[in-house]
Design brief:
Blueprint: E1 4-10, E2 15-24, E3 27-37, H1 39-43, H2 50-72, E4 81-87, H3 91-108, E5 112-116, H4 117-123, E6 148-153, E7 158-163, E8 170-174, H5 180-191, H6 197-206, H7 234-246, H8 254-283, E9 287-291, H9 298-311, E10 316-318, H10 330-341, H11 345-350, H12 354-357
Parallel strand pairs: 1-4, 4-5, 6-9, 9-10
Antiparallel strand pairs: 1-2, 2-3, 6-7, 7-8
Helix pairs in contact: 2-3, 4-10, 5-6, 5-7, 5-8, 6-8, 8-9
The chain binds 5'-O-[(R)-(carboxyoxy)(hydroxy)phosphoryl]adenosine and zinc ion (ZN).
Length: 367
C-alpha cells in the first residue's frame, strides 16, 4: 500500500464523527479523529431519537469537518479518498453523513467509498495505537493473524464473525433478539442509573463488595449450553425487570443496585466469553478480536483475555484502543484503506462516480 490520506465520515447513530488517517503499508495512523457526541441531548429521552440525531448531525457536521481537517493539518488536494458509513444505522442520521460525503467527493473530485458500520468496528483493531505517525510506533497490527474470529458487541449487534482473510466475513452466530449493548442500556433504564446504560452499569458493577452477595441474585446465562453460536439477551433483561419488581423497595439501596449490575454484567460476559472460546475451539482462528461499543467494557476485555490465555494459549488476542471502541470515523477510514487496496484500477476509477450513485441502506448487510 502506498501512502494514502483518507477522510472518513460516520453518522450512523448519535455521534457526528470525521477523521483523517494516513495509511502506509497496512499501518493506519490517525491524523485526526473528531467526535461530537449527542449523549446529553438523547439522555432525557432514554434513547436515540432518529430525527433529533439527524438535526444535530446537520448542525455539527461543518464544525466537526473543519476541525478534523485543521487538526490533521491537511489540504483537500492531499486527500486521496473519501469514505463514509452508508449503513446499517438510523436512516435520517446516515443520510447526513452520506449526503455530506457525496457533496465533498463531487466538489473535490475524489473517489468515494461506502463502508459497513460493523466492518469499521472490526477495523478499529487495525488502527495504530501510537498517534504520532513520525515516531517509531509499536504496530499492533502485526499481532493480527488470519483466520480471525471477531466478537462484535455494540448497541445494535452481537455477532461472532469468522474472517479467513481481510474483508471476508462469515457470521457464525448472532443474537436472536436484543444486542448486548441494548440490554445494558435497558437494564440501566430499569435501575434508573443513567444514560448511556453500558458505562453506567459497568461503573455501578464495580461498586459491589462481598456484602452485596447477601442478596443472592442469580440471573440466567441464556443459550450458554446451546450447541450453536447464537445469543439471546432479551430474557436476561426481563429477568432483571422481574427481580427489581419483586424487590422494588430495595431499589433505594445502592448496595442492591450494585449487586444487580454486577450479576447482570457477569451473566452477559459469561455467555459472550464461553461462546467465543467454544467457537474458537471449533473454527481454530489464530487471532480473536473484540469490536464495537461494548468492547469498552473493562471486565469483558479482561475476562475474555484470561479465558483465551487459559483455554487457547496459541491464539493471540486483540482489542481496540479505548478511544476507538465507540462510534468514530477513524475506524471507517481504516476499513476503507484495506478495501481500496484490494481494488482493481477499474474499480478505483468507478469510485469517482460514487457521489452520484452510492446507496444509503439502514439494513446494509456485511459482505
Ligand atoms: O458501537 P456503539 O458505540 O454504537 C453502535 O454501533 O451501536 O455501541 C454503543 C453501545 C451502547 O449500547 C453502550 O451502552 C455500549 O455500547 N457501551 C458499553 C460500554 N460502553 C459503551 N457497554 C458495556 N460497558 C461499557 N463500558
Ligand atoms: Zn457502532
Amino acid at each position: 500500500m502506498s501512502i494514502m490520506h483518507i477522510l472518513a465520515i460516520e453518522t450512523s447513530c448519535d455521534e457526528t464523527a470525521v477523521s483523517v488517517i494516513r495509511a502506509r503499508q497496512g499501518n493506519i495512523d490517525v491524523l485526526s479523529s473528531e467526535i461530537s457526541s449527542q449523549v446529553a441531548l438523547h439522555a432525557k429521552w432514554g434513547g436515540v431519537v432518529p430525527n433529533l440525531a439527524a438535526r444535530e448531525h446537520v448542525k455539527n457536521m461543518p464544525h466537526v469537518f473543519q476541525e478534523a481537517l485543521s487538526k490533521a493539518k491537511i489540504k483537500p488536494a492531499e486527500i486521496d479518498l473519501i469514505a463514509v458509513t452508508n449503513g446499517p444505522g438510523l436512516i435520517p442520521a446516515l443520510l447526513v453523513g452520506t449526503g455530506t460525503a457525496k457533496t465533498i467527493a463531487y466538489l473535490w473530485e475524489k473517489p468515494l467509498l461506502g463502508i459497513h458500520h460493523i466492518e469499521g468496528h472490526i477495523y478499529a483493531n487495525f488502527v495504530r495505537e501510537c498517534q504520532n505517525p513520525n515516531a517509531k510506533c509499536q504496530t499492533k497490527t502485526a499481532d493480527i493473524k488470519f483466520p480471525v474470529l471477531a466478537l462484535v458487541v455494540s448497541g445494535g449487534h452481537t455477532q461472532l464473525i469468522l474472517m479467513k482473510k481481510h474483508l471476508q466475513y462469515e457470521i457464525i452466530g448472532q443474537t436472536l433478539d436484543d444486542a448486548v449493548g441494548e440490554a445494558f442500556d435497558k437494564v440501566a433504564r430499569i435501575l434508573g442509573i443513567g444514560y448511556p446504560g453500558g458505562p453506567a452499569v459497568a461503573r455501578c458493577a464495580t461498586q459491589v463488595k462481598n456484602e452485596e452477595l447477601k442478596f443472592k441474585i442469580k440471573f440466567p446465562r441464556p443459550m450458554l449450553n446451546k450447541k450453536n453460536f447464537d445469543f439471546s439477551f432479551s430474557g436476561l433483561k426481563t429477568a432483571v425487570l422481574y427481580e427489581t419488581k419483586k424487590n422494588s423497595e430495595l431499589l433505594k439501596d445502592k448496595t442492591y443496585i450494585a449487586a444487580v449490575c454486577h450479576e447482570f454484567q457477569q451473566a452477559a460476559i459469561d455467555v459472550l466469553v464461553k461462546k467465543t472460546v467454544r467457537a474458537a475451539e471449533q473454527f481454530k482462528p489464530k487471532t480473536i478480536m473484540l469490536a464495537g461499543g461494548v468492547s469498552a467494557n473493562k471486565e469483558l476485555r479482561t475476562q475474555l483475555g484470561e479465558a483465551i490465555e487459559k483455554n487457547l494459549p496459541s491464539v493471540s488476542y486483540k482489542i481496540p484502543a479505548l478511544e476507538f471502541t465507540g462510534d468514530n470515523a477513524a475506524m471507517i477510514a481504516a476499513a476503507a484503506a484495506f478495501r481500496f487496496e484490494k481494488m482493481t484500477q477499474a474499480q478505483k476509477k468507478n469510485l469517482l462516480q460514487n457521489w452520484k450513485t452510492l446507496p444509503t441502506n439502514a439494513n446494509l448487510k456485511l459482505s
